[in-house]
What we know:
The complex is a heterodimer of chains A (272) and B (320).
Chain A: E1 2-6, E2 9-11, E3 19-20, E4 23-24, E5 31-33, H1 35-47, E6 49-50, E7 55-56, E8 59-66, H2 70-80, E9 84-89, H3 97-111, E10 115-119, H4 130-138, E11 142-151, E12 157-164, E13 167-174, E14 177-181, E15 191-192, H5 211-217, E16 222-226, E17 238-244, E18 253-255, H6 258-267
Helix pairs in contact in A: 2-5, 3-4
Chain B: E1 3-7, E2 10-11, E3 14-15, H1 18-33, E4 37-43, H2 47-53, E5 60-65, H3 74-87, E6 90-96, H4 99-112, E7 115-120, E8 122-123, E9 128-133, E10 138-144, E11 149-153, E12 169-171, E13 183-189, E14 202-206, H5 216-225, E15 229-232, H6 234-238, E16 259-263, H7 269-272, E17 280-285, E18 298-301, H8 304-319
Parallel strand pairs in B: 1-4, 1-6, 4-5, 5-12, 6-11, 7-11, 14-15, 14-16, 16-17, 17-18
Antiparallel strand pairs in B: 2-3, 8-9, 9-10
Helix pairs in contact in B: 3-4, 5-8
Amino acid sequence: MKILVTAKRVPDPEQKVKLKDGAVDLSGMNFVVNPFDEYAVETALRLTENAASNKRSGEVVVLSIGPKEASQQIRSCLGMGAERGIHISGSDDELDSEQVARMVAAVYEKEKPDLLLMGKQTVDGDNNQAAQLAAGYLGLPQACFAASIELAADKQSVTVGREVDAGVEYKKVPLPAVVTVDTRIVLPKAVKNNETPDSHEYAEGPRYASLKGIMQAKKKKIDNLDAGGLGVSLAPRVKVVALEAPPERGAGIKVESVDELVEKLQNEAKVL
Amino acid sequence: MGNVLIVCEQKDGKLRSATLNGITCAITAAKASNGDVIALVLGAGIGDAAKEAARYGVKKVVAVDDGGLAKYMAETYAPVVASVAKAQGASVVVATATAFGKDLMPRVAALLEAGMASDIAEVAGPKTFKRPMVAGNVIGVVEITTDVAVLTARQTEFDAAQPSGDAPVESASADGANALGAEVVKLEEVTSARPDLSEAKVVVSGGRGMKTAENFKHLEALTDMLGGALGATRAACDAGMVPNDLQVGQTGKVVAPDLYIAVGISGAIQHLAGMKSSKVIVAINKNEEAPIFQVADYGLVAKWEDTLPTLIEKVKAIKG
């Protein structure tokens, strides 16, 4: 089984974001793999291994679109165990979801994987579009916001537990397909592939790269592609014309007791 | 001039209330582009939902009633939405940013070759919209350059549409719907007697600090006394203290109630992204350094074990 998985380089979401001169101030920021993409990489690895015998049984190709430093994020996914990487140079300031989806679709056409796996959204743009757009362009079935995924024994389909407003919807899609993952996909038993025994419990969360993994990652191949070569137009359909600071919340107060809290809620905020 | 198509969400022949907020967004967008609002209701056995949609100030309703659309799937719904949008001369196509809207609308945008703005909070012009980014820490002003703009609207940023008039309903066919081999196998529904999280006036949420599912009973008692909805952080959901559908945040639901009570919640950015727009925020946490206090209007530095029982007693006395 071959899986194409995306890994965007984003500012570490645990850092405080500040605007400076109408742009996000990136000075001094750490960059990480978009957490939802990191979950997608973990999912891809779980789908292509026997965790009991520690044997790989497929190929995971990591795609990142971003500045040259994004190769660091690809290497970190290769350190987790992915087989190889593809890097398309591009800048967030110039790319919208449509262009990203076109590039992903173009790489899909080149690589012909069985599954395109992506995080449900990036934590900087928060668009939640690229995977669905790519599925639309490619005419592939989609299963978004996966909390669980089970690969059929014949490897011809996946059944995805999708987190929807009413609960969990189980959607079966034939492969090839596009799947996006949500946070719970990295719970201990969320991914089943008919190779790893069903009783196996993974450690919660994406795996860390082992020292051996990091050493091996240095020798793994990263192909460099450019958007023009993939036939993707560089005129965005959605332009970010300005960035604004959200309305500040007025500084709150500390109350000393439940009595004081209730009094304030009743008489000051008038919400009780 | 261009029309605005609002894609309505229905369940068992009833309009989902989240759609009403999307209708308000559509009405605002139609004013900006000097067009009419057309509602699209699609599914199987949707006659009542179509009639309901007709009563919220739209120009007309297009109903696509087809057995093939009985269960929602992006694969079958997107081509129908795209073809109705073309037939109705829509320059804006919008849905509320529910799980349905988030899954469906980008695929519609792909079929229409349209630019899309997700989760918008404001219509700033015919093709200009404001939307939260970076977990709500930045507001992006985005301009869509294509003839058609596809949008999802953040439910909490638009009021629910009020009944006004009664528009005609016309039908259209579901030509082009193709499941591509996908099927919905089952739906594990979570039912609750409490109001919907996204619509409740009061939300009481617990975090990791609640420690066990049993302890959430205290929060449930407070929630029910206030007629509110119960919420939780990702940590509490992942630890199995409460079902996942209660999660408030970047994953899960975005809420903006009149009163949000956060108990045992530290205030991770991902959680704040889902509740920062609440009118009044109360935080009870034993750690005075917890980031939740930076957004709380009223903070009480205390263990919930020592404070919740008293709070429940006091609220009980007020609410009778």
